[in-house]
Amino acid sequence: MPSDTSPSVDSADDAEAQPDLYRPSEIEPRWQQYWVDNASYEVDNDDPRPRGYVLCMYPYPSGAAHMGHVRNYTFGDLLTRYRTMQGEAVLSPMGFDSFGLPAENAAIRTGVHPREFTDARIAELTSSLVRIGGAYDWRREVRSHDPSYMRWTQWIFLKLLEAGLAYRKKAAVNWCPGCQTVLANEQVVDGRCERSGDLVERRDLDQWYFRITDYADQLLDDLEGLDWPERVVTQQRNWIGRSEGVEFEMPICDENGTAHPDGLTMRVFTTRPDTSYGMTFCVVAPEAPLVAQITTADRAAEVEEFVARVRNTSEIDRLSTEGSLDKRGSFTGAYALNPFTGDPVPVYLADYVLATYGTGAVMAVPGEDQRDWDFATAFGLPIIETVQRPDGFEGGAYTGDGGSVNSPPADRQGLPGPVLNGMDMVAAKAAAIEWIEAQGLGEGTVNFRLRDWLVSRQRFWGCPIPVVYCDACGIRPVPLDQLPVLAPDDVEFRPTGQSPLQSHEGFLHTTCPDCGGPARRETDTMDTFVDSSWYFLRFCDPWNDELPFDQEAVDAWMPVDQYIGGAEHAVLHLMYARFFTKALSDLGVAPEGLREPFHRLFTQGMIRLDGAKMSKSKGNLVAPEEIIDTLGADSLRLAHLAVKPPEEDVDWEDFGLEGCSRFLQRLWRVAVPGSVLVADAPVRTGEPTEVDLGILRTTNRLIEDVTRDYDRWAYNVAVAHCMAHLNELYRYVQGESGVHEPTLEFATDTLITVLAPATPHITAELWARRHDSGHVHERPWPVADESMLVEETATMVVQVNGKVRDRVEVPADADEASCIAAALASTKVSAHLDGDPRKVIARPPKIVNFVT
RNA sequence: GCCCGGGUGGCGGAAUGGCAGACGCGGCGGACUCAAAAUCCGCUGUCCGAAAGGGCGUGUGGGUUCAAAUCCCACCCCGGGCACCA
């Protein structure tokens, strides 16, 4: 109504007039500045307090923080602040995993140098992290692309090279056409590039590898002592894929058992030597060099055609179980002597046998192996059972345990092999291996699925591999005093798919450090997982310019007490970092006793929107910054904590932002000095009444509950306990009994204190206002008064035949007899009791159950 | 196929042998207001019932127990991991 002359309700003016209002956008930046100015979360290496190391996986700088970052860093920040309040010196560093393809792709698109692009993204992300309220020791920040970090990444590479743990070899590798680079096995998922989703191709290329397989046993065994989610441990175990078995020689012969003129033998690997009597044929990988030597003339044409076809088949098709087996195998014409029976068995090729695993050749036992059974059925080969089937067993191969049979077959006496009849699988295996070793045919061995880590990448925006190629001296390391090798700045980024380093004459040409002659620089860079395999060590001593880190500094902080990040790194980063830690420890770079980097691991769930994983590329991003602008960082943090158990995936729709924001406003209204709510309540002094004692008890209970909840990562439950306590306070303040000032003071201050790790800004502000600029985060974590946890009366449940019929108040220390008496006194109970109960179970003071 | 998780109101979840559904969201009602928003108070598993009260109820079916969401057996469904690795 234009003529209305009533006072304006313009919200800005209104806010000015009401100093009581909770205004996060005004409070939050001020406290963020305070924590920086006061070095609140900077810790020195000689800090006298007990030490803790809380680490969130350092982020790839993709610009302003997304919800996944907020979730991750909220959990880490809560823990840092909580443990600091418990009296620890908590190392909480932050850095950036700043090499990687997005920056290079952006350079090709826009012409902006990846460094410029990356530095700008880091600035954005840093600002986000500050706005979330993260407590970090920023002095220790590291960036993968910083020359002072690259220098030591390259230094470590050369240490590994010197130790023989880095090497170069030519092999069939995974090539991602989208990323225009090779990939490690771990970065190929279902035949596709883990990053871009492109189908990977096989190429024979010379590449750099780290000998992670040297550590296969340790990487497997040391999983035992880790406090990690079972899921991640299982994934690592699967990936390493240890299997025990035996390798043995089989002489190549013709179909009559006459030895091959060249005396050729074939080595096979099996985990089931107990079934050797059932071997009716052998299978060799088509790529095996042996194939050309043993193939008979009459089979040569068909074998050649088969090998050619397999080579041209994509990895995906080859691993597929589709297609009939007879088209996927071929007879070589050769035979091999089964040492157990002395009989010749035919040697086949099949694409299901992999050249890269074991010996690339297997003995086939169709009776006890499903793949062999399928193959034997397709090619009409004989099947011999060597393990007793359980009653009622139907189907092809039997892979379970059972008594060994048919060794030697009853109708063929005088065979060379061991007698296994009647033994169970374990005993028969042992006996077979013992026999093989005694005969000098072979020995028990262990095979792993894990392959060496391919680390070279044909990209520009990564850490250069610090070696040169000299025509005279071969591969030479760049001298340590010349590190870091830096990529030149005067490069042009073109969409050719080729790294600009490969055509940069000035970078390419150099001199050999040994002979001084002309040499060519390595143009490949390292996998970015190399950078992230040691950053947690650098955080302990980031200022060191003589070594990557000092052993004493690392000893002071490592291992990381609590590592927090996404489960998607289960077999990538987490495996590589474990390998680096062990290798650096063995090389005397890291402390001798440091065998594992991350003592405890927590993997938080993903955030989904409309059921899909939240990501920029899918355009479904909810921007944290916008929520911080309006509701504040504390509300956003609280919503992340409250919504779900932290390890579970969560849909954005389920976030209770309004509820959390409302809670903080309610907290503010009751806790801010001059609170209208409190001012309206009649104030009492003197001795506390029963009502006041009730509040004291629930407050002590709150301390107990929240401490336990924080310790067991039940953050959603911790928030619920705080909310319940605030509801209690409201009932108290608005109740008829009035408030007892010291009681209300204690109840409010305690709530603020236990919330301080979760919502740091509002609690810091309220505490400072209530206590003359004191700082809640510098206070010790509260401890519950045990005597206040004991209730004087308890609500006892009375059941008849297990059904609840009444609840009665009894003294907390009531004995069994008085509990039963109290229960019988209830008319509601006696209405259900027809005469004397047959049996009475009493658990004073919680429950009495009458059985009739 | 194998190995892990998981299945509880309209929704997210809580409860680890002893009151199922804490806390939040949503919904309903009330107070305040000219009115609305905000705020405050209350109710909110389901069925029968006017009420008092009672029946049923934690994926399904069995079992153990005075007592089971919780422990055991079998199965169904959902999510994740592994899968020609001999």
Q: What descriptive keywords fit this protein?
A:
single chain, 852 residues, alpha/beta, Rossmann fold, Isoleucyl-tRNA Synthetase, domain 2, 5 domains, 7-stranded mixed beta sheet, 4-stranded parallel beta sheet, 34 strands, 36% helix, disordered N terminus, RNA-binding
- Based on DSSP secondary structure assignment, what is the total number of beta strands? 34
Taking the alpha carbons of the first and last residues, their distance comes to 75 Å
CATH topology of the largest domain: Rossmann fold
- Helicity, in percent? 25-40%
Largest sheet: 7 strands, mixed
Please, could you describe this protein's structure?
Helix 23 packs antiparallel against helix 24 and helix 25 (741-755) runs antiparallel to helix 26. By secondary structure, the protein is α/β, with parallel strands linked by helices. It has 5 domains: 28-152 and 530-613, Rossmann fold (3-Layer(aba) Sandwich); 153-211 and 452-529, HUPs (Rossmann fold, 3-Layer(aba) Sandwich), CATH 3.40.50.620; 243-447, Valyl/Leucyl/Isoleucyl-tRNA synthetase, editing domain (Isoleucyl-tRNA Synthetase, domain 2), CATH 3.90.740; 656-788, Isoleucyl-tRNA Synthetase, Domain 1; 791-851, Ubiquitin-like (UB roll) (Roll), CATH 3.10.20. Strands 10, 11, 12, 13, 14, 15 and 16 form a 7-stranded mixed beta sheet that branches. Strands 2-1-24-25 form a 4-stranded parallel beta sheet, covered by helices on one side. The radius of gyration is 35 Å and the shape is flat. Mean pLDDT is 89; it is low at 1-17. The structure holds one RNA strand of 86 nucleotides.
